């Protein structure tokens, strides 16, 4: 399995999904070697056994543990992450470059040529050992790992599954980076199977990349096991309820729409507070928008939250809004719900295909979003119903189920 | 001799507009209701009324049946499909078709201890008499909701007969095909629905997976003939929209109903009767205990479909909490507020908030005008908020006027 991020160092849903799926697969009896471009030194030894490329079994040798399926984490050395946002990316790259004594990337380039270089370097590194170790299927997550997947397929002559967590078209719409879109198209045309996280993404991939529907499968993401009881009560914090946005601050995630609705809610509900959690390109623009809307005294930008902070934030929130323009799946609503927070999402989000206990709004419909936020804050019966039914649904949306669906796809290829 | 008792329930709700701001009285999506009632008139009410009228004529009056038409549907038909009301009146004129009474707003008022239930029932009885020239003596409560206290209220209102679901938990080992008396009633007779035979038509008829599909009128009449002759009646109670809506014309439901009366009457052992004819000819054979409400909905036959979750109970409580204020406002020159409030008592508004996805096997499938049960709740509560603020305005005006007229102030 080829991935780009893995807990605990993650920037978004991709790492969470890879972690959930990889563990679900091992529990279904599949040995998984999860290959990452870079070691952080913070890998949780309880989450996966961290191996060194020197320790990998050679071709023909039996898998590491004969007794039960194992998850091994192999981190190669590569410094970059996707979806970082231009400024954060430039910052990180400057640090690396300074250490190496090299130049910074050109401004205005959202990913930087160097990220594409990294993708290429990762592919070469994977090709270097893929022919020498035993495995049956190559499973590559999102475009950054697909060149590596193609390289591994050439080296080992094993089937390739490309897993689409989001496509460049969904991330950037008409402003898609042509280099990334081309890279996606090339990999998807060659892949033996393309797995999408939702039917909507499968439709996009079929329409935009011309992927043959016979090789297209949908495996929905799943949820962490919900705590036995939601930590907080079901009554909204009467005096000062908290309305939460949690996600990257990019146009795709719709934070501006959130702020407009927040202003409408603030007019009706004098106590309501708003929190925007996450980092991204739009930080400054959003701060200016909040000031213009007069939201500043009641709105807090927290920046990027680490894993433990995310949970604490859910425990403070009375409602979570995922106002994305385009959302292939959307794991955040599932996480929030598992902590007892009711959720409002935009119509067409992939998560709506598997979760009925949510409110839905059309992207950009400010009165509708404001009305639904207010309804959740005002009616305890609504909150309670959304959370109770939602947690019942979550008990069925387990990663084991996603893993079984994934296993069916592997079996089609290994027959 | 066993009598086949057909009772058809005709109902359409008034649907709420999803978005405010609401003009006074503008809570309801009249255009949508008009569109739907015209469609159902075309597909179901008109062709089926015509079919039943012919059945009466062709059997020389030996085909009998009963209807209950909900108050909201009566209003919609008057407004948008008056020809349907005329054809119901033609059925009434045959004197073989009985019209039953229910609450005037297809409401759950029977579950609330206030006079609202009695007011709605009396109002509906007057309307039925005006429209069809019959004073109803048979009562069917909304969704056949029945328990002992409801039965006592219905008896106190002067009805002779009450219809209810032939639920297993009411009957135990007993058969639904006899006349019973609800515990606590002295006079009222209870006729129960035969859910096996009723659902063969109402739910299973068009189901290709069903072992008896396609069901022929001759086969079904054969099942009726096979009922032991000592059984009093078979209660075939179902939605009228079964014909042409729930079971589309393409299923052959009209041909089935056209052929059925002849086959039923060909046997020596079966005839047709209305509920009041059965009650007049037969005494109760036993008593039915119903300490908790039984309905005809879902597998559980309880109130879960309308009051089963937090939202539904909260909305229903909030609605009835407004009743005293509404009545005061109405008594002081604002009857439109009471009318709007009563239209909110219709059970469908609560049904749309149902979240329970229990194994209903496609039975009693309900179509909601809203995105989700949560949205149905929000829309209802928004409307109720609007109504509450209008009532508050009226009442505060009145208090101000009275205090300015009061010489002691």
Low-confidence stretches of chain A: 78-86, 99-112
Structural class of the helices, strands and pairings of chain B? alpha/beta
Helix and strand string of chain B, N-terminal first?
EHEHHEHEHEHEEHHEHEHEHHHHHH
Give, in spatial order, the strands making up the sheet with the most strands of chain A: 10-9-8-11-12-13
Order of H and E elements of chain A: HEEEHHEHEHHEHEEHEHEHEHEEHHH
Mind telling me the C-alpha Rg of chain B? 22 Å
Structural class of chain A: alpha/beta
Relative strand content of chain B: 5-15%
Task: Summarize the structure in words.
The complex is a heterodimer of chains A (415) and B (409). Chain A is an alpha/beta fold and 415 residues long. Chain A is 42% helix and 13% strand. Chain A contains 14 helices and 13 strands. In chain A, the strands form three sheets. Chain A has a six-stranded parallel β-sheet with strand order 10-9-8-11-12-13, sandwiched between helices. In chain A, strands 4-5-6-7 form a four-stranded parallel β-sheet, with helices on both faces. Residues 78-86 and 99-112 of chain A have low confidence and may be disordered. Chain B is globular, with a radius of gyration of 22 Å. In chain B, the strands form three sheets. In chain B, strands 1, 2, 3, 8 and 9 form a five-stranded parallel β-sheet that branches. A three-stranded parallel β-sheet of chain B has the order 4-5-7, sandwiched between helices. In chain B, helix 5 (148-156) links the parallel strand 4 and strand 5 (161-165). Chain B is an alpha/beta fold and 409 residues long. The N and C termini of chain B lie far apart (76 Å). Chain A binds chain B through residues 356-360, 367-368, 371-372, 375, 378-382, 384-386, 388-389, and chain B through 19, 309-311, 313-315, 355, 371-375, 377-378, 381-382.
């Amino acid at each position: 399995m080829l991935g780009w991020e893995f807990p605990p160092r993650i920037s978004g849903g991709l790492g969470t999904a890879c972690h959930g799926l990889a563990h679900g697969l091992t529990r279904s009896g599949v040995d998984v070697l999860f290959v990452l471009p870079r070691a952080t030194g913070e890998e949780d030894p309880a989450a996966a056994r961290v191996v060194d490329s020197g320790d990998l079994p050679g071709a023909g040798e039996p898998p590491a543990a004969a007794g039960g399926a194992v998850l091994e984490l192999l981190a190669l050395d590569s410094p970059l992450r996707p979806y970082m946002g231009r400024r954060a990316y430039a910052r990180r790259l400057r640090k690396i470059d300074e250490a190496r004594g090299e130049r910074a990337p050109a401004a205005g380039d959202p990913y930087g040529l160097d990220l594409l270089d990294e993708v290429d370097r990762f592919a070469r590194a994977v090709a270097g050992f893929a022919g020498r170790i035993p495995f049956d299927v190559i499973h590559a997550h999102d475009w950054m790992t697909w060149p590596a997947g193609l390289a591994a397929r050439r080296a080992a002559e094993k089937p390739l599954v490309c897993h689409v967590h989001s496509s460049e078209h969904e991330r950037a719409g008409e402003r898609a980076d042509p280099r990334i879109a081309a890279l996606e198209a090339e990999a998807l045309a060659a892949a033996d199977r393309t797995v999408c996280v939702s039917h909507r993404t499968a439709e996009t991939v079929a329409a935009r990349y011309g992927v043959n529907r016979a090789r297209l499968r949908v495996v929905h993401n799943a949820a962490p096991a919900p705590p036995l009881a939601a930590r907080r009560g079901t009554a909204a914090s009467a005096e000062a309820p908290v309305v939460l946005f949690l996600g990257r601050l990019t146009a795709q995630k719709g934070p501006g729409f959130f702020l407009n609705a927040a202003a409408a809610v603030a007019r009706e509900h004098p106590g309501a507070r708003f929190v925007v959690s996450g980092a991204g390109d739009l930080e400054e623009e959003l701060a200016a928008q909040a000031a213009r809307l007069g939201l500043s005294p009641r709105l807090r930008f927290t920046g990027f939250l680490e894993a433990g902070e995310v949970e604490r934030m859910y425990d403070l929130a009375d409602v979570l809004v995922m106002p994305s323009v385009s959302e292939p799946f959307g794991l955040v609503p599932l996480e929030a719900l598992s902590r007892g927070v009711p959720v409002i999402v935009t119509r067409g989000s992939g998560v709506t295909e598997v979760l009925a206990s949510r409110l839905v709004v059309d992207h950009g419909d400010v009165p509708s979003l404001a009305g639904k936020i207010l309804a959740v804050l005002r009616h305890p019966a609504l909150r309670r119903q959304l959370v109770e039914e939602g947690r019942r649904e979550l008990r069925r949306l387990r990663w084991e189920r996603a893993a079984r669906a994934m296993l069916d796809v592997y079996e089609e290829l290994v027959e | 001799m066993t009598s086949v008792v057909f009772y058809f329930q005709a109902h359409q709700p008034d649907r709420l507009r999803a978005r405010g701001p609401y003009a006074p009285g503008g809570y309801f999506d009249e255009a949508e209701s008009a569109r739907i009632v015209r469609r159902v008139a075309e597909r179901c009410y008109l062709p089926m009324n015509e079919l039943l009228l012919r059945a009466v004529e062709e059997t020389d009056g030996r085909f009998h049946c009963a209807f209950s038409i909900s108050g909201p549907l009566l209003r919609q038909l008057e407004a948008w499909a008056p020809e349907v009301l005329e054809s119901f009146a033609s059925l009434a004129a045959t004197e073989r078709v009985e019209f039953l009474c229910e609450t005037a707003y297809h409401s759950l008022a029977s579950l609330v201890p206030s006079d609202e239930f009695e007011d709605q029932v009396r109002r509906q009885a007057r309307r039925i008499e005006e429209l069809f020239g019959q004073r109803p003596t048979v009562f069917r409560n909304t969704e056949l909701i029945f328990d002992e206290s409801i039965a006592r209220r219905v008896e106190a209102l002067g009805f002779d007969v009450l219809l209810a679901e032939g639920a297993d938990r009411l009957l135990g080992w007993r058969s639904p095909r006899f006349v019973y008396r609800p515990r606590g009633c002295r006079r009222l007779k209870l006729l129960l629905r035969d859910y096996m035979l009723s659902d063969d038509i109402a739910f299973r008829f068009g189901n290709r997976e069903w072992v008896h599909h396609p069901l022929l009128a001759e086969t079904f009449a054969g099942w009726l003939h096979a009922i032991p002759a000592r059984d009093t009646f078979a209660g075939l109670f179902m939605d009228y929209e079964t014909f042409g809506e729930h079971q589309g014309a393409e299923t052959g439901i009209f041909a089935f109903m056209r052929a059925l009366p002849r086959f039923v009457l060909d046997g020596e052992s079966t005839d047709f009767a209305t509920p009041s004819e059965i009650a007049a000819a037969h005494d109760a054979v036993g008593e039915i205990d119903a300490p908790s409400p039984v309905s005809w909905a879902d597998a559980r036959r309880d109130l879960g479909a309308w009051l089963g979750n937090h939202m539904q109970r909260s909305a229903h409580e909030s609605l009835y909490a407004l009743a005293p204020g509404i009545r005061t406002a109405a008594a002081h020159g604002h009857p439109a507020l009471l009318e709007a409030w009563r239209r909110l008592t219709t059970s469908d508004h609560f049904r749309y908030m149902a979240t329970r996805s229990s194994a209903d096997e496609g039975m009693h499938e309900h179509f909601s005008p809203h995105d989700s049960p949560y949205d149905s709740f929000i829309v209802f509560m928004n409307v109720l908020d609007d109504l509450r603020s209008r009532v508050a305005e009226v009442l505060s005006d009145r208090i101000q006027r009275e205090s300015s007229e009061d010489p002691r102030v």
